[in-house]
Amino acid sequence: MSGEVQAAAVLGGFTESETQEDRGPRGFPRRRRIGLGDWLLPVYTVLAFVFLLIPIAYTFVFSFNDSLKSNISWRGFTLDKWLNVCNVEGGAVCQAFTNSIIIGLVATLIATVLGTMIAIALVRYRFRARSAISLLLFLPMATPEVVLGAGLAAQFLAVGVPKDMTTIILAHTMFCISFVVVTVKARVASLDPALEEAGRDLYGSPSQVFWRVTFPLLTPGILAAALLSFALSFDDFIITNFNSGSVSTFPKYIYISASRGIPAEANVIASAVFLFALVLVIGAQVSRAARAKRLAKLG
Question: Among 288, 173, 279, 296, which residue's Cα sits nearest to residue 236?
Fold first, then answer.
């Protein structure tokens, strides 16, 4: 912008980014016309959040309901359900929740270890049927759960394996491995081989290079895969229902109780899980923001 134009802009109240077209004939800012897209997207976003949060809000509110055998209608506010969550039906809801936690942790541990090794092998090594294995790993993800659960139940029945917590863990491990492989595989493919080569140049053994260089770089992907596996295992109902026998898990307990209204104690556990997950997400975001701020100061 030349000196004359700059002077005219200053005298006229313009900034360098403004032109005469941005203002009216008398130098006043033009009013921006609000189109359909300016309010349609915000309204749609708000409605989507409301639609998603209504069931969560309902669950949280009815966890304080002073219910008896049914938890469908509101009877009054009470904290007794939160203070005595394991006292309903002999502690059945807490036992089901404990079973889901144990199954999720064991299945996640096995699936994460096996899936990580498979992902490293598929990315770093060349062997026969490598492409076929990569394709077959997607089948549990693409197969409907009712088909997968029924097939596993028939297989356990044919072999003569009794249905208990072990069969649930085997079933959950099977479909969780696919998600672990897909997640960790993307992380392995993004690693810079020069970092591992530098470790070998410094006379590091293969195990030292893996544990001191490769594994720390893979840790974010492995943790993400483990969290995804645990969430899928904890939340699963269809496959669990086919292969659980008499063992009750939290989703199975909720399904059986839904016909007479989910007990307030189950709403308490569900609300506590949601609040715990919310605290983890907020804590992770705050930690990430603080880390980025420290790095910015150092830079």
Answer: 173
Find all residues with CB under 8 Å of 105, minimum gap 6, and list them: 230
- Residues in Cβ contact with 178 at an 8 Å cutoff, skipping those fewer than 6 apart: 115, 137, 138, 139, 140, 141
Residue the block writes with tokens 């990569």: 134
Q: Measured between alpha carbons, how far is 119 from 190 in angstroms, rounded to an integer?
A: 12
Find, among 200, 140, 195, the residue nearest to 171 by Cα: 140
d(C-alpha 88, C-alpha 67), whole Å: 11
Provide the token pair at 170: 């085997």
> Rg of the chain over CA atoms, in angstroms?
28
* Residue found by looking up tokens 């639609």 in the block: 51
Cβ-Cβ contacts under 8 Å for 173 (sequence gap 6 or more): 107, 110, 111, 114
Condensed to tens digits (0 to 9), the pLDDT of residues 236-292 reads: 999 999 999 889 999 999 888 876 667 888 889 989 998 998 998 899 889 888 888
Where are any strands of DSSP class E within 204-279?
none
**Those residues with Cβ within 8 angstroms of residue 48's Cβ, 6 or more apart along the chain or in another chain:** none
Phi/psi for 120 (5° steps) reads: -65, -40
Cβ-contact 100, 226 below 8 angstroms? no
The pLDDT tens digits of the residues spanning 64-83 come to 888 877 777 788 888 888 88
Domains of the chain (ranges; CATH) run: 81-260 (1.10.3720.10)
